[in-house]
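Hi support team,

I submitted a single chain yesterday and got back a structure, but I'm not sure I'm reading the token output correctly. Could someone confirm the output below corresponds to the sequence I sent? I've pasted both exactly as they appear in my results page.

Thanks,
R.
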Amino acid sequence: MKTTEIDTITKLEENGYIGTDACLAISLFEYGLAWKEEENQIEFIYGIGMEDCDYNSFDRGSFDLGLDVRKEFDWADFNEVESFIGLTSQEFDALPLPQKISDLVSYYGFENIFGSRYWEGFEIQENN
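Hi R., thanks for writing in. Yes, this is the structure output for that exact sequence:
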């Protein structure tokens, strides 16, 4: 999908993206994360640049829906992540994949979870 097909909140909603907040704009501009599950993959849109405490540029990354985060991110200290979010290992393991990725991003940052970016990203407009 071209970034011009997902460069407004309306287009993202029409394409099935959701976020941690009921409001997709808040999910993206304040928390910097939204996702869409499709077939056997989940595509994330995540914030890479900020201005005035809001994300203003974004990139994309995807994972298989069957991703085992403990294996993929075997370098992560999951005891610390679980302590940070206030969950036990069993509670963390029971979370849906988007929430696990969100929690890892909250603790380690976008670049450690999605990798280095090699471009300036794309913009998303709140209103078309």
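A quick pointer for reading it: The beta strands are 18-19, 33-38, 41-51, 54-64. Let us know if anything else looks off.

Best,
Support desk
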